[in-house]
């Protein structure tokens, strides 16, 4: 590199410090500049959070790396770097596994292992903040790197982090002031921050949670099975002013019909055979806190009537008692049923439905969250890698594509299970060795309805599906399938999909609504 281009790169970096950029872009520009200064295959910026390292930005590493949480005790190289006050390089023959083995972007499976690796610890305001790591697949790549240059890069990284964090701090301060003015209390708590997902619908959901958390509104959380309804209920409670009070969860589907009333409202001694002492119900246990009624759509009609009475006036009676008790409980309820349909069919009381859905919150399905699928996959891969004591666990490119193309009827829970099963399957193969880099193939995932299967649908099958339907329904079925597939390919970007289909965005949005692909 000539001195002039070297100076140019450094000047660009310093210029960036003065710009007001979103943190993700700021860090990405920093990493790109570092790759221009030091020839390598991957750079990563990781922040220390307790006993693990969280990648804030990566360049040259697979996208799922951003969803990984590297437990320091599992990664001796990270441990050594964190303990070393100066930049350091690992010897080429170091037996220690590299945390990024198999994660370098765009390389063939024969050359997955990182061969040259260096890094430096970052201190912000005198406190250990995290790490900057540089990796190369070629041995001896860093032979000519001057450690003074690495020290300079570390200082510029710290300056970038300081500026980024300061700007974020000022931004959230401004937001706080604004929200205070609107008489909202900022309801951000740790757990919500730790949820994995960056897609637009997921970020929108997190915002909605922050907004609704500090009201005392009853929230009806809806969404397909496994989307994270329970997680959201916990998130709302955590972010609410009641978070020091109990959160009591009841799974309405698991309650035996004859015990529902006593479980929810409690009983007095002798109220029925088996009531050997006075017992408080879930409502009383949740007093001043939150009661989460999971699978509320499964409650039988008799129990719905009793629940409605308590929701109307906060007064309840233990089974067998004659005096009334008053409770102050915030209600969150969840269901994967379409309750409006349940009401229509007479299985759910309309008045209870209206009481529960004061604030309806719909959780988007996993297939509507685009690249979040890969981030979550990375998160679960790292969990499994650590649990199974593996050196490295990665996804082959075709496996990544298959994950993105799959429809995920069981959503996040299904993804969690698919990755856990695939990791076990791979490990149990006789060739698999814990110390090699294990790559999950598309076949390991054993997804049921991937795109290939859809493509293999024969016209005969399509004919038989169409039999007995009118022309309009057949057309709609076709459009629904085709447009969902194109939306998935464009990661739910409406404008890009509309462009490809040659219609305008508003017309496509209307069509999606008519086909019930969007609300
Ligand atoms: N964004 C996320 N980040 C990390 N883990 C998640 C996320 N969303 C969901 N999960 C995990 O996915 C699993 C399913 O979530 P959860 O139990 O909340 O779904 P649910 O909608 O309540 O399911 P069901 O309808 O079956 O009751 C849980 O293990 C949860 O921790």
Automatic annotation (TrEMBL):
An example Gene Ontology molecular-function term: sequence-specific DNA binding
Keywords per UniProt: ATP-binding, DNA-binding, Nucleotide-binding, Transcription, Transcription regulation
Pfam families membership: AAA_lid_14, GAF, HTH_8, Sigma54_activat
Chain segments annotated as coiled-coil in the UniProt record: none
Biological processes annotated in GO: regulation of DNA-templated transcription
Transmembrane segments: none
InterPro entries registered for this protein in UniProt: AAA+_ATPase (IPR003593), AAA_lid_NorR (IPR058031), GAF (IPR003018), GAF-like_dom_sf (IPR029016), Homeodomain-like_sf (IPR009057), HTH_Fis (IPR002197), P-loop_NTPase (IPR027417), Sigma_54_int (IPR002078)
Domain Sigma-54 factor interaction: 195-424
Keyword Cytoplasm part of the UniProt annotation: no
NCBIfam families found in the cross-reference section: PRK05022.1
Protein known as: Nitric oxide reductase transcriptional regulator NorR
Recorded name of the encoding gene: norR
């Amino acid at each position: 590199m000539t001195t002039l281009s070297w100076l140019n790169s450094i000047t660009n970096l310093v210029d960036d410090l003065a710009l007001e950029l979103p943190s993700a872009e700021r860090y990405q520009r920093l990493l790109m500049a570092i790759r221009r200064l030091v020839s390598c295959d991957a750079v990563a910026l990781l922040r220390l959070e307790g006993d693990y390292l969280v990648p804030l930005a990566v360049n040259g590493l697979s996208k799922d790396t951003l969803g990984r949480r590297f437990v320091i005790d599992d990664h001796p190289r990270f441990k050594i770097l964190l303990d070393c006050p100066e930049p350091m390089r690992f010897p080429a023959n170091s037996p220690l596994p590299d945390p990024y083995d198999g994660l370098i972007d765009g390389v063939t499976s024969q050359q997955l292992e990182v061969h040259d690796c260096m890094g430096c610890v970052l201190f912000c305001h005198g406190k250990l903040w995290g790490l900057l790591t540089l990796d190369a697949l070629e041995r001896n790549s860093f032979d000519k790197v001057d450690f003074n240059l690495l020290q300079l890069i570390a200082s510029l990284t710290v300056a970038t982090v300081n500026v980024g964090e300061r700007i974020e701090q000022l931004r959230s301060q401004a937001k706080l002031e604004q929200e205070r003015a609107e008489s909202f209390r900022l309801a951000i708590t740790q757990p919500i921050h730790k949820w994995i997902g960056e897609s637009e619908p997921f970020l929108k959901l997190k915002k909605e949670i922050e907004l609704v958390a500090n009201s005392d509104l009853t929230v009806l959380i809806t969404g397909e099975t496994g989307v994270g309804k329970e997680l959201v209920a916990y998130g709302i409670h955590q972010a609410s002013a009641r978070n020091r009070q109990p959160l009591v969860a009841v799974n309405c589907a698991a309650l035996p019909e004859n015990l529902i009333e006593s479980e929810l409202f409690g009983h007095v001694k002798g109220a029925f055979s088996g009531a050997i002492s006075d017992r408080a119900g879930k409502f009383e246990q949740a007093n001043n806190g939150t009661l989460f009624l999971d699978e509320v759509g499964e409650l039988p009609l008799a129990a719905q009537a009793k629940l409605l009475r308590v929701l109307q006036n906060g007064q309840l009676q233990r089974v067998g008692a004659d005096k009334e008790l008053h409770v102050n409980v915030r209600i969150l309820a969840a269901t994967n049923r379409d309750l409006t349909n349940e009401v229509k069919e007479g299985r759910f009381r309309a008045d209870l439905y209206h009481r529960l859905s004061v604030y309806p919150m719909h959780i988007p399905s996993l297939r509507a969250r685009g690249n979040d699928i890969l981030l979550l996959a990375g998160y679960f891969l790292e969990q499994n890698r650590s649990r199974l004591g593996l050196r490295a666990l990665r996804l082959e490119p075709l496996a990544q594509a298959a994950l993105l193309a799959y429809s995920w009827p069981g959503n996040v829970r299904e993804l969690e299970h698919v990755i856990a099963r695939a990791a076990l399957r791979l490990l149990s193969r006789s060739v698999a060795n814990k110390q090699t880099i294990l790559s999950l193939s598309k076949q390991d995932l054993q997804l049921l309805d991937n795109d290939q299967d859809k493509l293999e649908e024969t016209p005969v099958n399509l004919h038989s599906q169409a039999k007995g339907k009118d022309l309009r329904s057949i057309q709609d079925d076709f459009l629904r399938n085709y447009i969902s597939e194109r939306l998935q390919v464009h990661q739910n970007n409406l404008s890009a999909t509309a462009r490809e289909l040659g219609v305008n965005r508003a017309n496509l949005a209307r069509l999606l609504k008519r086909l019930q692909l969007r609300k």
